[in-house]
Structure of ROK family protein:
Amino acid sequence: MLVSPRPTTTSEGEHAVPLQQQRPTGKGANQEAVRRHNLGTLLGHVHRDSDVSRADLTHRMGLNRSTIAALVGELERLGVVAQSTPRGDRQGAGRPSLHVRPGEREVCVIAVELRVESIELARIGLGGAVHGRRSVPVEVGASPVQVADQVARAAADLLDDVPTDTLLVGMGVGMPGIVSTEDGRIHYAPNLAWSDVAFSELVQERLGGEVPVVIGNDANLGVLAEHARGVARGMSDVVYLSGDVGVGGGLITRGRSLLGTVGYAGEVGHMRISVGGRACRCGNRGCWETEIGAVAVADALGSPSHDIARLVTLLETVDTPSPALREVGRMLGVGITNLINIFDPQVVILGGLLSALYPAVRADVDAEVQHGTLDADDRRTQVLLPGLGRDSVLVGAGELAFGAMMSDPLLVVAAAEQAVQRVRVAAV
Amino acid sequence: MLVSPRPTTTSEGEHAVPLQQQRPTGKGANQEAVRRHNLGTLLGHVHRDSDVSRADLTHRMGLNRSTIAALVGELERLGVVAQSTPRGDRQGAGRPSLHVRPGEREVCVIAVELRVESIELARIGLGGAVHGRRSVPVEVGASPVQVADQVARAAADLLDDVPTDTLLVGMGVGMPGIVSTEDGRIHYAPNLAWSDVAFSELVQERLGGEVPVVIGNDANLGVLAEHARGVARGMSDVVYLSGDVGVGGGLITRGRSLLGTVGYAGEVGHMRISVGGRACRCGNRGCWETEIGAVAVADALGSPSHDIARLVTLLETVDTPSPALREVGRMLGVGITNLINIFDPQVVILGGLLSALYPAVRADVDAEVQHGTLDADDRRTQVLLPGLGRDSVLVGAGELAFGAMMSDPLLVVAAAEQAVQRVRVAAV
């Protein structure tokens, strides 16, 4: 069996984390583990930047030139990177540094985002290039099996024209729901009306069992993407908010995803900011999402519909916000302030509906944050919109799928190679 | 100069973190770094457990027996560990495993806790044994210089009778205030009425410049201690609350301290849970600490004084809590619930005044937590009192001081040896 249970159920957040950092505290390190760690870390640099000089790699990784050369050589023999001297790089004295890029052979993942109204898919290559996209409408109330069928069909379609030696190293799926880190199951997805679904297994079966499928919560993948390729690139402490009817949080602390004990961290929408306030669908009162979610925004705009696209359009036309909308802005500021006081992040990123809300009520949000943050002037926290716009979650799903490869390229490439061989044998 | 600026200003939270985990994502690892990492990790096991078999070390560190034997041998030559066969360990077949313990030579730190009314000090040996304690009263309004003088005198007193070859590897100081991770200065300590104080430098000068002094926020050290030696031992995600007039939070996520971008994380007392509620000294309304801090507890108890010791005594006599006190309990539950929804921790530890409050209103706290936590039944979060009681912060200060040694024993022992030699030369 090619796909061991481990990669299938690995949850989000391990992307680009060096092997050593994944070990629980107290573990030692041996030479073979160090080599694999170094290979994965180097490949991670190539993936993030898509073109990096060996001199830069030497500097960033703190290893000497001959070690870097050996590591690059090993990845080159695997076919996943190539090196060359870029034109125009010869002006300085001395030998120009070779550059390392993704290799000729296509190495890719399928990224999937389950939305309430559609499934978004992309084929993403090593280095982050998007080679193809699909968007498939979903019926309201579709079952997990129906959606898994749709995902598998669209993925097959995306892979239809790739060369036969393409290494498909995984599929990543982002969705609006709680995913257990213990077994990789979707625990609960209120907007899809799913509970306790082994969705990754459903999809994996339909892909012939050859491709590891990993799944993660949308906000957790949003923060991963913004950290890897968006406005939070290189930052250590990041809060990403995905607003919709509910509000979810994706968190990075010390450069790594914060998922919690069983994977349920980040439920910032149910942070109570107004004890005795509006009733929340969770059964409590005064949860943050009752004050800033789609229902509150629709009420403030006088809109009968909570449809997100419609609300975004309405918010874009707001010139002078009404007192009711300003109050929503103030409540957005109160919750952001709480999170700044708790996490002291470099950035709070406002995704989903909040991306449209913030520009309309920015003065009220910013005033509340400035007033409510302890020692606001000493902090470095910025409030920003996502660098990847609507694509944060989809890109994060791709990063999630590439995660195993950046931990241990040898293992992942070997598995993907075997899959290619089996498909070839089967085709004969 | 023995004491480089680096160890002086290192802030809390690095204790027992393997070297590899301290590197920013993207670094490689070379053989020398791996050896130092492994030496530090092994010493960390000996420090935590004070007696551990080589067989256990082999298992825990995932290294082979000969590597473990070599590492232990190197630490033994440094004089910091010793190995022997424990009596009674010979009943089984085969060779009994040697046990590793702290060596004969004393290796110690001075732990200091600055409280509002006193300074607590302890000399703590490798392995965690407390070899001596002092408690020094502090005048209200004492200046940083006055307190530094008192700390230095009490530390000298604690070191008066140690053998001359004792290796003093550092001093750790815990205090109720915000400590910048950027420069190690006390940014603001409202209860001491200090702001922008380079306290570690003041103390270090008075100790002859030979001993690295590191300083940390009390809640951050409380969580460190409970994680190392208290109720959160071995857990990955921990919330520690230190309640007093204010409420501070110490956070561990994925086994490591969460300090934030500039070290200001954990200000959970200013999480607003009741917009428009009671006025807080921070200038806002409805901050959590206005609902559960000493002032709120005193009001609920009808006590004219906010003195913590008096409130603790009053709380201990509560048999049936009044409606007002039950409401304080409910607000304690609301804030705990927010933190559980945000962090999904294994444990929330209630320190300081909250240790006395919780038993008095436990039913109300627990009901609120059970009701307000999303998917409460799937979680593993426990609400507990500190395992180290009043000593959490002091023990955490000791762990902080030992931190550098568990990262790189060779470097720290060499520096401490040089200090011993210089003192000898000076004494001749």
Observations:
- The domain at 231-386 of chain B is CATH 3.30.420.40 (Nucleotidyltransferase; domain 5).
